[in-house]
Design a protein that fits this description.
Blueprint: H1 14-25, E1 32-35, H2 45-60, E2 64-69, H3 79-91, E3 100-102, H4 107-119, E4 123-126, H5 130-136, H6 154-165, E5 175-178, E6 193-197, E7 211-213, H7 215-225, E8 230-234, H8 241-254, H9 265-273, E9 282-286, E10 289-291, H10 298-306, H11 321-327, H12 331-341, E11 348-350, H13 352-366, E12 369-370, E13 372-373, E14 376-381, E15 390-395, E16 405-410, E17 413-417, E18 437-440, E19 445-453, E20 459-467, E21 484-485, E22 487-489, E23 494-501, E24 528-536, E25 548-551, E26 555-559, E27 570-577, H14 581-589
Parallel strand pairs: 1-2, 2-3, 8-9, 10-11, 12-25, 14-20, 18-21, 23-27
Antiparallel strand pairs: 4-5, 5-6, 6-7, 13-24, 14-17, 15-16, 17-22, 18-19, 19-20, 23-24, 25-26, 26-27
Helix pairs in contact: 2-12, 7-8, 12-13, 13-14
Bound molecules: adenosine-5'-triphosphate (ATP) and magnesium ion (MG).
Amino acid sequence: MSNQPEAPEKGKDFIRQIIDKHLEEGAYDRVHTRFPPEPNGYLHIGHAKSICLNFGIARDYQGKCNLRLDDTNPVKEDTEYVDSIKEDVKWLGFDWEDRQFFASDYYQFFYDVAELFIRMGKAYVDHLSADEIREYRGTLKAPGKNSPYRDRSVGENLEIFRAMRDGGLKDGECVLRAKIDMAASNVVLRDPTIYRIKHAHHHRTGDAWCIYPMYDFAHCLSDAHEGVTHSICTLEFDNNRALYDWVLDTLMQGMKDESLFSENPEFLEFLKSKPGFAARPHQYEFARLNITGTVLSKRKLIQLVQEGHVDGWDDPRMPTICGFRRRGYTPESIRDFCDRIGVAKSDSTVEHALLEHCVRQDLNDRAPRYLGVMNPLKVVIENYPEGQVDEFEMPLHPEDESMGSRIVPFSKVIYIERDDFMEEPPKKFFRLGPGREVRLRFAYYVTCTDVIKDENGEVVELRCTYDPETRGGWSKDGRKVKGTLHWVSAKHAEPAEVRLYNHLFTVDNPNAAEEGKTFLDYINPESKTVLTQCLVEPALKDMKPGTNFQFERTGYFCADSRDHVPGGKLVFNRTATLRDSWAKIQKQMG
Ligand code: ATP
Ligand code: MG
């Protein structure tokens, strides 16, 4: 996997420590992981944590990581999601090589295992209703009780299970359950359902099946089928680990009895040919990622999209990977974030500011600098010759000469940022005011000589003079100015639309809604501001969609991947401001 990102230098997380031990003790001679999204939504930043962990482990141990689309639920899944998942994993910089799998490819295999379990007396068809099953299950304190169908003969079970498969029974009429222990202290082990009837069209298998396996049954079998060694999931599957183990151990026990395979000897050969049924996989749980100021539940994200609270899955305010991409986040910044948050065994919430810090760090090093004015204020330089144009060569990056430079034209009429002028500037305001001199970035010193207002008293134009001796933005006589402003030449500027994004929610934890409210009640009405009057330097005119850059003094931006047209309508998204609130938080924490 030579094209994968380099491993970061750091202490090992608990999963890597377990793997080290396994390799040392010879439990496995190889490392194989998988990333198993269910294609029922777009990937979000929490998935990025899981992707970085699983693919990162494969990279660090010269192992393999599969992409498995866990499509065992026919109803909610869609190929649109499959395509977006693949695009996002690739964009993050990871490669599953030729190992893209679908759990639905294993339907026949799951079915064969289910029949084997029936033959072993380890599974039975139950006709109790869903409500009855729940009632019979008992509680955390009280044991459950056996279903009256629990002791059916193997022959009867096989017959009904086959009828289920062949479509002779209605949805919900019966289920196949594992026969484990209705008094187990772990409720998951009280004869869990492993197959249900669902007459539904599946996005890949069509109408071939009308019974579908449950997650707990299918997942561990998929892992073993693929030769996975370490099956990493999030903490909420803690209790399910026992069932993961039971299914695989039961199968491996069955493999020892050839008589169980008399009808289907190829199946035993098949199982024996797979390394995953010799040294079987085990499950490990880590803490899922939570971030302040957003939601990371697919159900909620779908709701945001479907109800139109955002402009689609890739709305730059969304915590989806495609949302971050459109916002201007780089794969490097997201991987850096995932490395920094680490892998822990207990849940916690990460400050959103850390994510922003990571993108800022990355773009600080790599983003070219340009000049752009968000809220333009006209400035006429009275002593600058009419028709003259100065061309300034400006470096694209202040510290990295290798990035080169561009030419920025200057002329008699320019625009500066409205915020950079105050008629009555307070003490610490070092920018432009009446009678004050400031530097125009890389150009000249100018002094404000007059302020022109409209009938409402609003400032509409400034008059300035410039000092021709300060060309390039420094003075030979050593005279200092306190402020440096960005600017664009009126004649040469390009109009642009700039979209400023803020947190989608007004509170740190929109999941914890007050009574009578939902997370939707906390949507930030100011999460998106569109500025349509912006003026930018001409070098941006042909910028390709998706390009990252910095508007000096303003923030990091990127050309929008949907609406920006090189040579046409320019649309830029603000990725992050220049203010690093994470640095502040760290300072406060000491
Ligand atoms: P669902 O609610 O639909 O089950 P899910 O968030 O579990 O959604 P999956 O598609 O099943 O989504 O997730 C794929 C993988 O990503 C799983 O291994 C899951 O544990 C992991 N994952 C999902 N959310 C997070 C998160 N917030 N942090 C870390 N890993 C996550
Ligand atoms: Mg899941």
